[in-house]
Design brief:
By secondary structure, this protein is mostly beta strands. Helices cover 11% and strands 40% of the residues. It has two domains: 85 residues, Roll (Chitinase A, domain 3); 49 residues, Beta Barrel (Thrombin, subunit H). A four-stranded antiparallel beta sheet has the order 2-1-8-3. It is elongated and about 60 Å long.
């Protein structure tokens, strides 16, 4: 009998996030993501709730209005600046830049456009203003160990280095 997703079960899954309007895949997680259900919140609470009671081999689709999670787009968080004002290491689309305001609060901005004269950075969450569908494939469900419950996920063993020697340099 297949184990079902419920509290204190270790779950591994893959998922993708698809824009409902364009059908474009926005995020694709092919390497299994593992977590202990009911212990940590690595996914949206709405997605986690939909996983409850599902089993290995199940594929679920969860529509999400990202405005409910991230709020509407705020165009005041979009900044266009002269390219020479930005260090070269940040002049790449997709680069995350951590910025600090006058009150010492930090916020992550993403470089969204670069041309010969300007750079555009955006402080909105990339899913802001979108309606998406999370498509999740459940790969594994089993009882979590006490250690996994404590840490919220898989705990890897670190190999012991019992038989080593130092070599002078």
């Amino acid at each position: 009998m297949n184990e079902i997703v419920k509290d204190n079960k270790y779950v591994e899954l893959t998922y993708k996030v698809i824009d409902q309007k364009s059908g474009q895949v926005l995020t694709l997680v092919e390497f299994p993501l593992g977590y202990v259900h009911g212990v940590n919140e690595i996914l949206s609470p709405r997605v986690t709730a939909e996983l409850e009671g599902k089993a290995v081999g199940d594929t679920i689709k969860v529509p999400i209005d990202c405005n409910a999670i991230y709020g509407p787009r705020d165009e005041s968080l979009v900044i266009v600046d002269a390219i020479e004002n930005v260090p070269k290491e940040y002049r790449e689309v997709g680069m995350a830049i951590l910025m600090e305001n006058d009150q010492g609060k930090t916020k992550s901005f993403l470089v969204t456009r670069v041309d010969a004269k300007t750079i555009t950075i955006d402080g909105n969450n990339p899913l802001c203003g979108r309606e998406v569908i999370f498509v999740l494939d459940i790969l594994m469900v089993r009882d979590a160990t006490d250690e996994e419950i404590q840490f919220g996920g898989k705990v890897e063993e670190v190999p012991q280095l019992d038989n080593y020697r130092t070599v002078p340099i």
